[in-house]
């Protein structure tokens, strides 16, 4: 099964991100926008794992979660990889709590390596993906919107768990199923 570890978003955060997607979609660029129900923060992409590996992942995810206190996480700024001028992935950055997310990502990467699971080729970058560019159609208007749009400014939310998701890809887009929701240490 294809799997990843992420952070769920509250409904009000999803709603603000959906409004932002709408503001960017005015550009009429050829972008596949992430469905609001699928918006999340990916902390570790695992790729294909077996049932036995899934159990091992749940075990190390529980160990890591028990070492972390709940924390606040907020949204900050809109951008694109590799750049706003040549966007391929459109994202919203994260603030206040980024250190905790990066620490968790590093721990997950270390544990995954011990199981010979997929290793991330690039350094961790705390962000939330809004959409992926499918073709070069109307990239200039999109780049202009990315430079001028006001990022959402909802209040930070409290992250209290880490979630192991299964991702099933089909022609209508990915479908995510929660495999495990692991609470962070309380206090």
Shape: globular
Helix-strand sequence: EHEEHEEHEHEEE
Q: Give a quick account of the main beta sheet: strands, pairing sense, barrel closure.
A: 5 strands, antiparallel
CATH superfamily: Cyclic phosphodiesterase
Strand content: 35-45%
Over the alpha carbons, how many angstroms does the gyration radius reach?
Answer: 17 Å
What's the average pLDDT? 93
Q: Helix- and strand-based class?
A: alpha+beta
Low-confidence stretches: none
Major sheet: arrangement of strands: 2-6-5-4-7
Which architecture per CATH?
Alpha-Beta Complex
**Euclidean distance between termini CA atoms:** 34 Å
Number of strands: 9
Number of domains: 1
Q: Would you state the CATH class? A: Alpha Beta
Give the CATH topology.
Cyclic Phosphodiesterase, Chain: A
Number of helices: 4
State the share of residues found in helices, binned by percent.
25-40%
Task: Looking at this protein, list some descriptive labels.
Cyclic Phosphodiesterase, Chain: A, 5-stranded antiparallel beta sheet
What would you say this structure looks like, in words?
The protein is an alpha+beta fold and 187 residues long. The protein has a single domain, classed as Cyclic phosphodiesterase (Cyclic Phosphodiesterase, Chain: A), CATH 3.90.1140.10. It contains four helices and nine strands; from the N terminus they run E-H-E-E-H-E-E-H-E-H-E-E-E. It has helices at residues 11-25, 51-65, 98-114, 139-148, and strands at residues 2-7, 31-33, 41-48, 71-82, 87-95, 127-133, 157-159, 161-170, 173-183. A five-stranded antiparallel beta sheet has the order 2-6-5-4-7, covered by helices on one side. The protein has a four-stranded antiparallel beta sheet with strand order 3-1-8-9. Helix 2 packs antiparallel against helix 3 (98-114). The protein starts with a strand and ends with a strand.
